[in-house]
Amino acid sequence: MKSNAHHMSxxxxxxxxxxxxxxxxxxxxxxxxxxxxxxxxxxQLYERGLSAWQHYNAYEIQARKENLDEIARLFAAMAAxxxxxxxxxxxxxxxxxxxxxxxxxxxxxxxxxxxxxxAAIEMELRETDVSxxxxxxxxxxxxxxxxxxxxxxxxxxxxxxxxxLKKIHSYSGYFFGALTATFSKHKLRYFIxxxxxxxxxxxxxxxCPVRGGTTASYIDLDAFKTDQRFIACSSNNQIL
Length: 240
Prior knowledge:
single chain, 3-stranded antiparallel sheet, 3 strands
């Protein structure tokens, strides 16, 4: 009798351990069923962000080939900002799904710098005015607070950049020569917020212009280090 009781006790312990070990998978599955639209939107935001980051790096290389070093630095600042924001979307996906996103296989469209600059800014403005607000509306309907807050911060960053980007865009056509001359003359410094991805020019801000950021989180572009998960995507979109 004692032996049978012992075996029953050990079996019960084994079942409890098995149930405990299965809990993360059950939670993950629950999250997927609870926030299906949020996961779809975050996936699209991540994929577009990674694509933009890869393009900005390619645009920077092209600008340096044309000896437009200051425009190249602008692309580098845009890439740094994009990597921070896209990294937030990736971490949210990991929290909700339990998996890690990887590099995407797609072709890069790289033209001359004047065209690249116009395409980049048009994409940023489209995200600000259309893509991000639409994604926020869908994500809000499912109520995941962290996803809502992350996207709201991303929208704040885009709005902070919006007027500067519009001004640069207005000079990216016939006045491109004047734009590059102005950039070369002033040698702008860029500071990147490591928490939000916001970019400020010339000097560190006394007050962070974006919610969720602090003045202490800003770093000079030259000292900014992109997350290794992004660096793992090479310029020709091969996974290293």
